[in-house]
Amino acid sequence: MTIGDMVSILKARVLLGEDKLDTPVYTACCSDLMSDVLAFVDEKTVLITGLTNPHVIRTSEMLDLKCLVFVRGKVPNEEILEAADEQGLVVITTKATAFSACGMLYAEGLRGVPVPLEWNTEDK
Amino acid sequence: MDALIHNTYPVTARDYTSAGHASADIKRRLKQLGVGGDVLRRVAVASYEVELNLVIHSDGGELELQVFPDHVQLVSKDIGPGIPDLSLAMREGWSTANDEARSLGFGAGMGLPNMKRNADDFAIESEVGKGTAISMGFKLG
Ligand SMILES: Nc1ncnc2c1ncn2[C@@H]1O[C@H](COP(=O)(O)OP(=O)(O)O)[C@@H](O)[C@H]1O
Ligand SMILES: [Mg+2]
Question: Which of A5, B18, B94, B99 is geometrically suited to a Cys-Cys bond with A1, CB 3.0 to 4.6 A?
């Protein structure tokens, strides 16, 4: 699907990147823990989050993420949006909760960033 | 061997707003040099985590970037308080971060293990009352 499809599925508002809605997306991740995102995301993906602080944008910058989806209708402040704009990030906001937003996107074919489900011997 | 880039970034303790600026600059400079893909992402992630640790846990310190033709060297040094138990600190999930750090999405105790995973070389030294030094090397090409 494209970011534009995500916008329709989530009935989202586009806060930034109106011109990039035809960008294809293959995977997404959902987290409020930036350390976790930094630990397992290794592709240019979509981040669905309820956190609206500057570190969400900086984490996106470090990982070259394509799109940020804020849930529960959250809108970050102007300063944060400016930083996101400088990076060329697409930023959208949906009224849906994180769980519902993920479910709606998954139902339409979007998948999570792949992680192995097998347990290793190092796992305690 | 002369470094192509040699830059030092002072990092202020508890300055949550500026935290990440050094890493953003490091990423930008590496990109300008033509470093990209997997290495660029690994340096960026490790640098961001180590910079945030300086802000969240240290009494202040600095991040030093050196870029050589065949590798990137990132060194973090601080003036304290030091880490009493390094093996505990290196454990995934171990964290002494305060609520403020947690509210920003950090303090999951994933930073040090994530740095170690992302760097090709990782060394940490710490002395309580003196400070902590972390050195990370990333091979280029
Ligand atoms: N520069 C530092 N100075 C003092 N303590 C540190 C420093 N870096 C890390 N630590 C200690 O190591 C622990 C683990 O660090 P880390 O894995 O990055 O997790 P987190 O930052 O989420 O707590 C921290 O909670 C802290 O107790
Ligand atoms: Mg940390």
Answer: A5
- Considering only CB atoms, which chain B residues are within 8 Å of A58? 19-20, 23-24, 48
Strand-pair category, A27-30 with A46-49: parallel
Q: Which helix (H) or strand (E) holds B77?
A: strand B71-78
- State the total domains in chain B: 1
The complex's ipTM? 0.91
Residue B82 CA, closest ligand 1 atom number: 4
What are B20-78's pLDDT values in tens digits?
999 999 999 999 999 999 999 999 999 999 999 999 999 999 999 999 999 999 999 99
- Measure the CA–CA gap between B65 and B137, rounded to whole angstroms: 10
CATH code, B74 = 3.30.565.10
Report the residue among B103, B106, B112 best suited for mutation to probe ligand 1: largest number of ligand atoms under 8 A from its CB.
Answer: B112
- As a CATH number, domain A3-112 is 3.40.1390.20
